[in-house]
Design a protein that fits this description.
Layout lengths: L12 H99 L5 H26 L1
Keywords: Coiled coil, Membrane, Transmembrane, Transmembrane helix
Length: 143
């Protein structure tokens, strides 16, 4: 009948295979871009969180160092104040001890019947005054 060969494939069928491949390629490209964006987002989040962690750590170290310096200065000021207070109290106590030692020495000298040093010194002082008065009279006579 007709010498025309019958085509076994319809004209619409040959277009479907390439379309399916194109759809697969488009899907794979979309999937690759989506995975790239997802990975970039995760990487960005990790990098940002590490950056913030370092920044917060540095800020905390600064605050801690300043607080420690303030506490140390306060501690040293208090220690200096306490030391000065104790030195003043010790000086006052030393003065009282010295006065007590003088009183005890004077009492001991007065109690001792063999040597009465304070009385002897007073007597010698009176004698020196008398001699000085006599020398002044002699000096006036010589003038």
């Amino acid at each position: 009948m007709n010498d025309l060969p019958i085509e076994t494939t319809a004209p619409g069928m040959s277009g479907r295979k390439p379309r399916k491949r194109r759809e697969n390629r488009a899907f794979l490209a979309f999937l690759a871009v989506w995975m790239f964006l997802l990975g970039a987002g995760i990487s960005g989040a990790v990098l940002y969180s590490n950056h913030m962690k370092r920044q917060i750590t540095a800020e905390l170290e600064k605050q801690t160092a300043s607080q420690i310096a303030a506490l140390q200065a306060d501690y040293e000021a208090r220690m200096t104040t306490l030391q000065q207070s104790y030195e003043a109290q010790l000086a006052e106590l030393q003065t009282k001890v010295d006065a007590l030692n003088e009183l005890l020495t004077f009492t001991k000298d007065n109690v001792d019947t063999k040597t009465d040093n304070s009385n002897k010194l007073y007597t010698q002082l009176n004698e020196v005054k008398k001699q000085l008065a006599a020398l002044q009279k002699n000096l006036e006579v010589l003038k």
